[in-house]
Amino acid sequence: MGREQFPGESVSADVNEDEKQFPFWRKKEFKLRELTRRIMELSKRHQLDLVFEELEKAKQEHGKLNHIIMNAAVMACVACKDIDRALALYDEMVKPDGCGVDNVTYGTLLKGLGEARRLDDAFDLVEALESGKAPGRHVELTDVHLHTLVNACAHAGDALRARGVLLRYRSSVRKTGLTTLTFNLLIKGYSRSDNPLEALKLMDEMRSHNLQPQRVTFNSLILACVRGGDLKRALKLLSAMKEEAKRLNTSRLLPDVVTYTTLLRGLADARDLQGICDMVAEMKSTPTCVLDRVAYTAIVDACIAAGSPQQGLTYMDEMQSSAKQDGQFKPRAHVFLSLMRAFAERGDLESVGSLRTRMVAEAGGHVWAEDRAEADELYIEAAVVSGKLGEAKKTLKNMIGLKKGIPLSKRAYMALTRFSEDIFSPYKLKPGVSQHDMVDNLMIPFEEIRPLSVDDEVGKVVMRFFQNDGIPVVDERGSCVGVAYAADCKEMTARVGDIMREPPHSVTSSTPVSKAITMLLQPNTKLLMVINDRTGYSLKKDEVQGERVLGFLTREATFSASHALPFTLEVDDTAQDSEGESLST
């Protein structure tokens, strides 16, 4: 310990105990560690500009920064989805006067390139690592780099390329063969690809290598089945998970919240409301499935997709009850808005109004002005659909969003012209047809519409356009390659393939009639193609195989099934003096 300091006496550096305890180089090291922590905190907040400001200040104070700090900055760029800035930092690090790079740098760059879907650049980087041409000392291709590249291909849905990575580079880094992680990444790739059901073949291959599937393996396979439209097989995989967990006496294979929310998507696509309710009951009784706000949100969305927003509202009320013990369960504003959209389509003004009021008071997190504006728009839509024009006009005049300069959405404009998004509000459907029916009830089967051939001569088929304004065109393989319209039949000697336009928009057979009508009323859309639900994931825009096409929905066939009515509205007392006026005052 130093002697006691007298008043007014200056203390020199050589006797300063703090300086002896913390010399200059330790202070500098401490500041650089603090800088690394600061960069990581800013990256979590996605404040990348502040990261670069901190780097510039540190360079001015300390000169060249070490590779640990620069790696943290590269990670921040990747976390903020700015791969170009990450590559710019890499170029700075590999300069002769730079700090250098290591395997961590390359692993981070591979992750960023994969997330940016720049697979070619990622492969170039791996090729440089394998050949030994990559800058940096003691850098080499490792298992981490290999799996990062496979994961990048899987994330992009390029399963074939992911498998090619293993065939090309596996011998360079591993001598023990494939691992469970490798198969998990491959299954993930197939589940995101155009042929997700191909992932199921990897299960047998995995077992042939004596590898035990993990929970994430089953979850990826279930996702593949849901995306492929094979719900029965997805449910069988759920049973297989439970049996495997029981056989091995482990809870690590029991389904978790990811398993169940993925299955909820499949049940919602099948519009199986009872199945959704049964699945939720099972979720509550499964010890490894922890219901949180995200899980409840998925449940509500599934109920809405299955056509029962009322059941979704019941589950949201459960969230509110749980929020009394844990505030994290409070539903966010988007849950309220999702329910309001569904109720607005049905003209349920009371439910929309109740949710609109509750959202401001009960929603978790911040309710933005845009959220309130959309809630007002949905209330107007519900009022118009239910025929209460006066209430809609009153709400429009008092919209706070308009006063704040928030423009009306396209959906709101459609509502203000007496058309909700389901577009059926001013029409009366023929007996036996509901706006919630599926399009396969109204479509013309593929065989009955008699598509034209690309080689047909216009003059020989022109009479068919007196009945249909647009007729699909197929090639010699039976694939739908376009649509021929009456307005384009000007040269009688021309081939149909020369005058046809691009293929029509497609909808699945489980699409509600109301949504199809909305699409048909769009400009230049006179024909819709109805495809099988299970093959919709593999369709290409410029070519659709005939066996995947179930039929077509035309304007003529659709609107002959509905009869326009004079649009009579129930006008309340507040609107008696403004009857006949437009809503868009």
User: What general outline do the C-alpha atoms trace?
Assistant: globular
Distance between the termini: 83 Å
Overall SS class: alpha/beta
The largest beta-sheet arranges its strands as 2-8-7-6
Low-confidence stretches: 1-16, 22-27, 419-429, 535-547, 560-585
Helix proportion range = 40-55%
CATH architecture of the domain at 439-564: Roll
Tell me about this structure.
With 585 residues, the chain is α/β, with parallel strands linked by helices. The chain has a domain at 439-564: CBS-domain (Roll), CATH 3.10.580. Helix content is 53%, strand content 6%. The protein has helices at 17-21, 24-44, 48-62, 67-79, 83-93, 103-115, 119-131, 143-155, 159-173, 180-191, 201-208, 215-227, 231-248, 257-269, 273-285, 293-305, 309-323, 333-346, 349-362, 369-385, 389-397, 400-403, 410-416, 458-461, 496-499, 513-520, 555-559, and strands spanning 427-429, 444-445, 452-453, 470-474, 480-485, 505-508, 527-531, 549-554, 562-564. A four-stranded mixed sheet has the order 2-8-7-6. A three-stranded mixed sheet has the order 3-4-5. A two-stranded antiparallel ribbon has the order 1-9. A hairpin with a 5-residue loop joins strand 4 (470-474) and strand 5 (480-485). Helix 8 runs antiparallel to helix 9, helix 10 (180-191) packs parallel to helix 12 and helix 14 (257-269) runs antiparallel to helix 15 (273-285). The longest helix is centred in the first third of the chain and has 21 residues, at 24-44. The chain starts with 16 loop residues before the first helix and ends in a 21-residue tail after the last strand. This is CBS domain-containing protein.
